[in-house]
Amino acid sequence: MATTPPKNSSDRNLIGRGSYSEALRIGSILRKETVGGLLLVVAAIGAVIWANSPAADTYFAIRDFEIGYEPWHLKLSLGAWAADGLLAIFFFLVGLELKREFVAGDLSQFSKAIIPVAAAAGGVLVPALIYVAINFGNAEAMRGWAIPTATDIAFAVAVLAIIGSHLPSALRIFLLTLAVVDDLLAIAIIAVFYTDEINVLPLMLFVIPVAIYWVLAHRYRRFFGLHASAAWYILLPLGLIAWGFLHASGVHATIAGVVLGFAVPVLRSAASGGPTAGPGLAEIFEHRFRPISAGFAVPVFAFMAAGVAIGGWEGFTSALTDPVTIGIIVALVLGKPIGIVATTWVMSRFTKARLDASLKWIDIIGISLLAGIGFTVSLLVAELSFGLGAIENDHAKVGILVASVLAAVLASILLLSRNRRYRKLELEESVDADADGIPDVYQRGN
Question: Name one GO biological process term (predicted).
Answer without folding.
Answer: regulation of pH
